[in-house]
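Troubleshooting log. The previous run stalled partway through. Resubmitting the same two chains, unchanged.
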Amino acid sequence: MSDSRIRVLVADDEPLVRSGLRLILDAEPDLEVVGEAGDGARAVELTRALRPDVVCMDVRMPGVDGLRATELVLRLPQPPRVLVVTTFEHDGYVLDALTAGASGFLLKRAGADEMVQAVRTVAVGQSLLYPTALRDLVRTRPRAMAGAPALTPREQEVLGLVAQGMTNAEIATALVLGVETVRTHVASVLAKLQARDRTQAVVLGYRAGLVEL
Amino acid sequence: MQATTRHLPRFLARRFAWQMLGAAIGLALVLLVVGLLDTAVTGLPVGVVVVVAVAAAVGLGLVPGARELEVTAARALLDVHADLVVPARPRIAHRVRTATWVVVHLATGMLVGLGLFALLPAAALIGIEAVTGRMLGSQLPLPAGPLEATLRLVACVAGGLIGLVATWPLGVAAAALAGRVLGPTPHDRMETALARARREAEHTRLARELHDGIGHALTVVSVQAAAGRRVVTANPEAAAEALAAIEDTARSALAELDQLLAILRDDAADDAPVALGPVLEDVVAAHRRAGLDLGARLDLPAGLPALLGRTVQRIVTEALTNAHRHGAPGPVSLDVRHDGDGVLIEVANPVRPGARAGRRGVGGRGLAGVRERVALFGGTTAAGADGDRWVLRVTLPCDPEREGL
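Second attempt completed without errors. Output:
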């Protein structure tokens, strides 16, 4: 039982935000907060020592900020998934963190259910967190990537459906394909975009103009 | 300036009214000058009358209130929509311009009056004489032949027309000139730009206060409330703690909001002084209670501009928190003092043994935040190791440019 629990690290410079998140996440039988970090450097340290599945990462922290910590954490062997936790949606750093490979973002004002669900979604990695909000976020910044990798029309189609938040099974139904085939396409898209996961693939896809905004 | 035909009568009526205003005052001045001088000397040359009358008009332009009257008249009667200025404290440039404008106004008015009440009747009289061939009192000899009569008639019609319609071009010209003469001087423009920049900087500071203060507090409240509700049955003690945290956070946020609103309520925020001493003493006391070995020297005037006061408070709080969090155990010193130019803040704490001076913990967001705040006020921030102590030095100017606004 305890092996199947999702291990979470909470990084935020405000102790009261940390304690709140811990209460909420620890109350779930399938989640377990294994550590708290008050700044980015500590978050990297604890991630290395505790090997959590998900790091809830505040963006603005003293010293090493959440953005840099996300990059550092994702460079570790067998990196955790990073869920960026932010006060303001239109914080420019959120998009940077997602581009850097964070798997999703969550607003601190979200309800407890939403927080729990976000951690689970990010941990499993089968679908996208808040597809609409993600698109709006990318929209705030002009297209930046040149020399987009060539995707086949089918791969582009699959990426478009991933961007809508569909799971592999849903995409299979929509395109009348086998789930295995969809999985292959998704894996190929991730490889071509050099994306860590679906979120990063979608962010890069938007920015490269492979997915319509 | 662009009058459609539909509005032409009104347009002309207003220009004409403006000119007649000038003509009436101008005529009164001339009569006064002639009357006064004539009693002293008889047979005055016209040049002297003109010079003295112009001087009198300039004098009139220097009378307090002349500017306001002229600006009002230009707006109402010349339809000047450009930015016209009535300076609270007129400078020499303003006075010169006002006097010039009064002279222009009176001269234009008298010119139009002359056209209408001298040129037009004279042209009519001479014209009728030329047509009828009868002397009516113009004292001009009658035209010698039909050709001369025709020429004279044409000249009279032209002269009469000029006298009749002079109000139009002169009105348009006056309206065009008003913006230049009564508008803002380069100095005015600079002051306006400075005032705007100051206002924007103030908004930035307030936005920052809201973001860091109220925004942060509401985030804590929202997270703690979500947590408390989540565990209220399973873990009522934790829920009670969450409620206590919410209560504390909300209460201090309200106090902060109170201060911010007080600043906003006062239109000129910088003119509402706050007594910073007691506030800082509270901050110092709180840090001492939390276990900081803190020596404080506070030397501040009774009143500081409100936003400046808040910034000082924030910087001191931030610096002491940093010293507490990242410094080595040992005495921390705080020195806040005020000289004529601004406020100086100095915080020094021991560096943790083994930790390299200048490591990121101390130079992190706390210091970056301090730098940003100080930059908003045009101050300076210096931080670094001084022997075995970490020293933060901040200067905040008391906005020396406020003079003259």
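Takeaways: Strands of chain A lie at 6-11, 31-37, 54-58, 81-86, 104-107. The mean pLDDT of chain A is 88.
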